[in-house]
Amino acid sequence: MSGWHCYILECADGTLYTGITNDLEKRLGAHNNGTASKYTRSRLPVRLAYIENQPDRAAASRREMEIKRLPRPAKLALLG
Asked: What is d(CA 45, CA 43) in angstroms, rounded to the nearest whole number?
């Protein structure tokens, strides 16, 4: 997948992490190697639970902030 993506990871402890990237495979690998985020480093392994394609970095960042503001039940509803 090319372009920018907003994603949600499910961590091993059941918590959710939201981020953006333009290289999903590389970013997911970095998360699972413990090098992408201080938050996910101590909650390995993580799995990709949700992804939205975005037209550019600005749109991805805006959507990331929208998702981060949602209560957990709303985030879980996104995951289906």
From this structure: 6
- Ranges of residues in the chain with a pLDDT under 50 are none
State residue 1's pLDDT score: 54
Query: Within the chain, how many helices (H) and strands (E) appear?
Result: 4, 3
The CATH number of the domain covering residues in 4-79 = 3.40.1440.10
Reported pTM: 0.92
How far the first Cα of the chain sits from its last, in Å, is 21
Instruction: Decide: 52 and 63 in contact? Cβ < 8 Å.
Output: yes
Tens digits of residue pLDDT in 54-63: 999 999 999 9
Which of 31, 11, 32 lies closest to 21 in space, CA to CA? Answer: 31
- Identify any residues that bridge with 18 across adjacent strands, giving them in sequence order: 8
